[in-house]
Amino acid sequence: MTRTQDPVGPCTAGSGPAEPEVSGSAASGPATGAREWLELARDRWHPALRGAVDRLDPHMRQVAGYHFGWLDADGRPSDGAAGKGLRPGLALLVADALTGAPRDAVAGAVALELVHNFSLVHDDLIDRDQARHHRPTVWTVWDDTTAVLVGDAMLAIALEELALSGSPYAVAASVALLAATRELIRGQAEDVLFESRAEVSVEECLGMVAGKTGSLLAVSASMGAILTGADDETVAAFHTFGAELGLAFQIVDDLLGIWGTSEVTGKPVYADLAAAKKTLPVVYTLASEGEAGAGLREWFATRTARDAADPDDLTQAATLIEKAGGRSWAADQAAAHVRTALAALEPVALADAQRERLIELAHFVTRRSA
Amino acid sequence: MTRTQDPVGPCTAGSGPAEPEVSGSAASGPATGAREWLELARDRWHPALRGAVDRLDPHMRQVAGYHFGWLDADGRPSDGAAGKGLRPGLALLVADALTGAPRDAVAGAVALELVHNFSLVHDDLIDRDQARHHRPTVWTVWDDTTAVLVGDAMLAIALEELALSGSPYAVAASVALLAATRELIRGQAEDVLFESRAEVSVEECLGMVAGKTGSLLAVSASMGAILTGADDETVAAFHTFGAELGLAFQIVDDLLGIWGTSEVTGKPVYADLAAAKKTLPVVYTLASEGEAGAGLREWFATRTARDAADPDDLTQAATLIEKAGGRSWAADQAAAHVRTALAALEPVALADAQRERLIELAHFVTRRSA
Fold it and tell me: Which of A40, A54, A165 is nearest to A105 (CA)?
């Protein structure tokens, strides 16, 4: 793409937070149950996802099957690592919590996973990301044309899945999902625009993250309520729950991108600093008064002249962010968004066990660094 | 995009047939009425299209407004040439013919125009087309990223328009539109794939055209029936009418691409030969036995060594196609598809005036060379 390859974009969320992989082992403590529930939920929505992809023509079906990890690049069955299925899992967990009938939300879960992956395929192309879940991205295996078209096709079958569901709430679910899709696109466009801007405020960066990560998690949670016929207040409560969880999710991802160990992230420590990503802790620090902020501005301004992989140089930047309070600010922000997420559920009538499960899921998503 | 820039693709439909422009003056005779009806229909669907685009964030709204011609590249009001609005016009004409209530199909008309233009924006990017309606395309004014994202956004608001319509037939209309969108994507993918293939049969080329042009015209006609609550037989009849019209439309466009005068097409005569497009008359000839077929195969194999703009060289190719029967075969095919289109309407109960209007529209679409 012709996008300016500015290595020092002022605010970025990457292509959405990297979900922990199925094969990972990072989660522990209170999150263990959530991991298992997401795996159980996968058994419900994954066959329907494959059914949706089967509606595509053979070429697009093969490319989509590769992207999702069940085919290799030659179309042979494969067992590639996939994402955790957080969005469809969340939809099914919410539906289960409200009515005990998660099946009512399966079409919505599939639509969410398809919209998420449509955006990943197009974002990988736009960002020229070469790998996802340790496998080459679609545009690298095929070409730009194929990446554009298979993303388009995934968005189409996402909406088709809802339209074919027979649910009396299919239209309401589509309205919610499409509003989120517009937000998702706004967030990605801002992410790219911000890269070529000299300064971006923390508020602008948070607005971008709300679009790019918050909007789809918001509708993932509310989808489970919409498709089980919940009232407007309940739908709104879960929407807030998901939106706030999404912000916390992204901020934790930003923290892990700097201080996460490779056991947790699969990447070396300081990975986002090595890539010069201006994530939220960085943007906060760059906008801050005082010596550490000035130091980080200088670090970014002069870094192309230095070795981008020098551990001491990266440690210096990380130390400046800590000194400016960027790390603790971001951690506080993440914790505050989790609190707001959980508070949104308080007025909702839920059995204790169901409420506890949603609380554990929130912790699973946002305490990956624990 | 990384697509191989093979100037001699074996089968292509360009980015769908070029619709006659609003400012054009090519139509005459029986088509005059159809041109006026399409303009009247535009008054009904165009405000709703602008309303749909207004749901986009300011940046995407500006880019979409530029693409549709009501903004210039700086976001100032403009009066750029737009397409004729054949797809939304067809939907409204069919609704009017069936119930006299075209307003029931306005949301569908807007959705069709948005899906058509989502595909144009992405196809312009994929095909690296620099101009559309004599204006620079989105990817040339902005960049590849913007073209990908605004296309995505148009597809999203297309479906959103139906979901927000309140129509009891919104789900059925979405199902039909999304099946056509999958076909549209299949057709575009095949168009690109065929370019790098040594040989493509006439049947394969017709299958590609059915996806790339036929599918959306089919659902344009059936949309007017679906959204007015017509029975399945009527919906199917209009689907066939639109699909056959689409095939005829593309074949006429292929003929005009070779023999059309600049007054009709806005391009020089032999334009598609100068661009080495292997459209249907060309593919037919290349696959044909005899001297003329062999001559055209030789012409294509050796043309990069010659002056691509030499009028004598282009005349030679056009003459070979005529000699092989490619021109008359294509004209016969177009006429046969128009006959099949009109025959599909025979069992449908329509007032004589309404039936006549649809017949005139079919002639308008397919007799632009008259």
Answer: A165
